[in-house]
Design goal:
The protein has about 210 residues and is of the alpha+beta class. It has five helices and 14 strands.
Length: about 210
């Protein structure tokens, strides 16, 4: 949960605008996580938005005059139900039948798992995908721990220092580099290449070689 900094408010039936103090996620049951939950202290009831629930999970909700049912679209099983009480459809907190939703919906995982699945992307990318509903995080760490694989694979060597020294005479200092073997042999049978560079004039000699 984190403080809500936007100016949006919740407007109720009598037209009153109620301030939102916090936003985050909560789990009414051990197997169900509700994302983008608003904390509105002046509300007397916990409200569940059907459009948000059906957007985050493969569910359908059917209402009648006396009750309602929530079904898993993949298995067609009823995962929750409730009664119509005093003008509201009431879902009792802690309904264990919701466990059937998450067992078939495998997109809800930790930050570390999604970080590895998506090729070790940054935490910013994962947060954007989570807000867009492309994936669901089981929990979000304030500062995700450093990934050992990222530290090893994405580290860079320090650059070589710039050298201002230069030979005063031709052939006073020669640089040499040998490269090979090449994966494809040339028409003349060469597989290696050697280069000599004069430090003073930068004149370059290039020689193909058949053997190192």
């Amino acid at each position: 949960m984190e403080p809500y900094t936007s100016k949006d408010k919740v407007i109720v039936g009598n037209g009153s605008s109620l301030p939102i103090t916090y936003t985050g996620s909560c789990s009414p049951t051990p197997n169900l996580q509700l994302n983008d939950v608003f904390v509105v202290p002046t509300l007397t009831k916990n409200l569940l938005f059907v459009s948000k629930l059906t957007h985050d999970y493969p569910l359908s909700v059917s209402f009648t005059n006396n009750d309602f049912i929530i079904q898993n679209l993949q298995t067609r099983k009823v995962v929750a139900s409730g009664k119509h009480v005093d003008g509201l459809y009431v879902l009792k907190r802690g309904h264990q039948a919701f466990s059937a939703v998450i067992t078939k919906f495998s997109l809800c995982n930790s930050f570390a798992i999604w970080h590895a699945r998506l090729g070790h992307v940054s935490s910013t990318i994962i947060s954007i995908l989570n807000k867009q509903g492309s994936l669901s995080l089981s929990f979000i760490l304030p500062n995700p721990s450093l990934c050992v694989s990222c530290q090893k694979a994405k580290s860079h060597k320090l650059p070589f220092p710039t050298s201002d020294s230069r030979s005063n005479t031709i052939l006073g200092l020669i640089h040499c580099d040998l490269w090979g073997p090449t994966p494809i042999t040339s028409i003349s049978g060469y597989r290696y290449y050697v280069i000599f560079i004069d430090d003073h004039s930068l004149f370059t000699w290039f020689y193909p070689l058949k053997h190192n």
